[in-house]
Structures are given as C-alpha cells and as structure tokens.
Design brief:
The protein is of the alpha+beta class. The protein is built from 9 helices and 18 strands. Strands 2-1-17-4-7-15-11-10-9-13 form a 10-stranded mixed β-sheet. A 3-stranded antiparallel β-sheet has the order 3-18-16. About 4% of the residues have low confidence.
Length: 296
C-alpha cells in the first residue's frame, strides 16, 4: 500500500517512505499478524522497545536512519559527543531560529507532521476521516466537554518516525485542564488505519483543554502509538506563549489532534482541499495551518 502526501514545499504529491513498513504490513495485513496483535499486549511491547531505544548501543542506528530519510541535521542541536542513544536523537531539539511561527490571526503548525483538516465535525457522530472513525466524545472520553466543540474544526497531525517529535502550543493562552486516557498502542500509520479505523479512540492519549487568546478554547490531544514508549509533557506553567514547547514523544510514529469551537477559526485552504481528496499535507513547525475568524 502506497501512502501519498502533498509536500507543501516541493508542491508535489509524493509517496511516503515508511520506517518499519514490512513489520506494519505483517501485523495488520497478514492473518498471523492480525491474530498476534489480538493476544500480544502492544503496550508491553512498546514500552520494552522504548527501553531498548534508551540504551547506548541503540545510537549505532542513528547514522543509517539519518541517511535513509535524508534528515538535515544542521537544523538540530547536538553535543560534541553526539547523541547518547536513539531516543536521545529522537527527542532532538531544533536550533533557535530554524523555524518561525506565523503570527496574528494565523494558526501555526504545532508540530512538524502530515496534516488533515476539516472545518466541521459533529462531536457525537462517528465520522470516517481518511480511515479514521473519529468521534470527539470518544476521543476525549468526555461527552459533556465534547458538546462545546460540536461542529467545530478538527486537525489531525500524524508524525512519522522520521519527524521532529516535540509538539508546541499554537497560541498564547492557558491550560484549563488535562488528563490521561488509558489505551492501547496500535500503529497510527495509514496501513494500520485501513485495518482498524478506530485506532485514535483506542490508543493511549493525553487530553488538554486550552484557552487560547486568538482561537478560543481548543482540545489538544496527543495520541500514543506502537513503539512510542511515552508521551512526555514538558511545559512547567499553566500559562504559555505561542510556540512554547508543550511536550515530546519518545520513539515511534504518533499523532496530535486539535479540535476547535465552531466559528473561531478555519483550516488553511491547501490542507482543506487536500483532505477532501484524502491526501495529507506535510507542514513544518510554525507554518500556517489555519486562520482565526473575526466575529463582528
């Protein structure tokens, strides 16, 4: 199965190079693999694999990984001794000034990822979104809170293992509440989603309710995935500025979903048009993904 995306910077539709593609195909497209993931605790496997990525000899994989995916390491901080482990590399930080966040009424990309966006999604309905069966109330496991976001915009940002894996706040504001929803650790790759469209509402996730200066209240949901050992929240204060780091994922692909209130903001046109065709749009951290709406 080919996974296509629109690269905003090349202006072309490209086929994604998938890390661990053979394993994902085995797990989700073969009878034996499908049987195994029903009985093998994926959370245990993911945590065990995550611990392996913390060991010093896992650093030997970094050079090959960088070469395979053509990662520009000039964009990232690293010590003179290099990275201590693969997870140390995976959590790499961008150098100051390498990404610029759009300002004013423009909503910046909160992570470097492949984006899908929809201007309206009913909070109660199970709506298929490029393989996802997405219900906001099920996603956050809070039907009462979901009512505030009925028919609001939704953005799904899928991070592949190759990506920068820190995620950021999209605007100045305050964290009103946050909580964890326990779950499984399925892959969030489209190959897996084709097999099981309910993965986003099955996987482990962290839910935050944000009150943003420009965009109103936002649900910000980090979703764990197969071989993601941990979702780490790194912010220290309940108030934040646009572009401040919110947290990071340890090794593996993962997803961030944000849900807005109706009439507060809308999706950037290229993301919207590509999403209607079932194609994700690759967007770098800080670049435009939405526009605030001025209500007169």
């Amino acid at each position: 199965m080919e996974v296509q995306l629109f690269d905003r910077y090349s202006g072309k539709i490209e086929n994604e190079k998938i890390y661990g593609e053979s394993f994902i195909n085995f797990a989700y497209n073969s009878p034996l693999g499908q049987a195994l993931i029903k009985v093998v605790p994926l959370k245990f496997v993911s945590e065990l694999f995550g611990r392996y990525q913390d060991l010093s000899f896992s650093a030997k994989k970094i050079e090959k990984f960088v070469s395979m995916f053509k990662i520009n390491m000039d964009d990232f901080e690293q010590s003179e001794k290099g990275f201590r482990s693969f997870n140390d590399f995976f959590e790499r930080k961008l150098k100051s000034g390498k990404r610029v966040f759009v300002s004013d009424k423009q909503m910046p990309a909160f992570c470097e990822a492949r984006y899908l966006g929809y201007n309206e999604l009913d909070a109660k309905e199970m709506v298929p979104v490029k393989g996802y069966n997405l219900s906001i109330s099920d996603l956050i496991e809070n039907s009462e809170l979901a009512k505030d976001f009925n028919n609001g915009p939704v953005i799904i940002a899928r991070l592949a293992p190759v990506d920068y894996h820190r995620f950021h706040f999209p605007d100045d504001g305050t964290v009103l509440k946050s909580y964890r929803v326990k779950g499984e650790y399925h892959s969030v790759n489209p190959i897996a989603l084709k097999h099981d469209g309910k993965i986003l509402i099955k996987n482990e996730r962290e839910v935050s309710l944000l009150d943003c200066k420009t965009f109103g209240k936002i649900l910000y949901v980090e979703v764990g995935a197969m071989c993601v050992g941990k979702i780490k929240q790194t912010y220290q204060k309940m108030s934040y500025k646009r572009g401040d780091e919110k947290g990071t994922f340890l090794f593996g692909g993962s997803t961030v979903v944000i849900v807005g209130q109706k009439g507060k903001w809308k999706i950037a046109q290229d993301i919207l048009e590509n999403s209607e065709r079932g194609i994700e749009t690759y967007v770098r951290l800080g670049d435009l993904i939405g526009i605030g709406i001025e209500i007169r």
